[in-house]
Fold:
Amino acid sequence: MICHRCGRVDGGHSEACLAETTKRVAATVLKRREYQRRSYRNLTPEKKAAYLKKCKAYQLAHPAQMKATARAYRQRHPLTGAGRDAQRAKAAKYRAEHHEHTLNIALKSGRKKLPVPTRPCPSVCELCGRSPNRRVLQLDHDHQTHAFRGWLCDRCNLALGKFGDNLAGLQRAVLYLRRNSLDAHGLPHDPDERKQYPLGTGLFDYFGRALCAVAHVSYIGNQQHNPAQPLRWDRSKSTDEADALQRHYLARGTLDQDGLRHSAKMAWRSLALLEKELEAEEAATAETTR
Structure:
């Protein structure tokens, strides 16, 4: 074939011919888009609604094609460096100045009445601290009292709802993670996380004398309640940690009748109380996850 513009054969077009062709195609595309915009503006409200409905149906029927088109557009028109930072700064400024925008969107979408926010919308989520990028932060409120709580991104807001939007659900999740990430002694399975529990340098090196005094309290108590038996914690003889702790606290700095320090017994009772609390949490988690 011979090009009727440059006279080249079999597609060997000159650069001038290619440039002219590209320019002509771009002009044709612009004219077509302008024609579509003008035609849309001249449509009646009924025809506009029908056209938008048709477009929406096409988008729902071809999700992969729509994603590919959007991805190709972002690749052709990337926002990097100063342009991206400027867009994020503009979005943050808009959210700060128009914090009621999210509330208006929710009201127009038919949701139930939301509370009036008591503070302006920040630039980042108040739970995870991340920026919502192109999305706006959502108004979070208590579904029982309808009181305003704060501004969250869509991920954190959905996460609260998945856990029941209450403290009990979040506590069960925390206990579940703790139970499945700690060994029988309460230490994490992960080697890097174990370094966050320095028993030697963070406990024995800190409170060596105090721990020796607590260990001596255990020995004397075992000799008192279970003489001539191996050292063990007889929990039937230890049931009032909270009250006993306060009694020893009032007498801190002095010695008890058996010669032991009240402060050492207070520390023993505190450890016993904490151990029972942790065991109760683990038992509650095991019961709810069955």
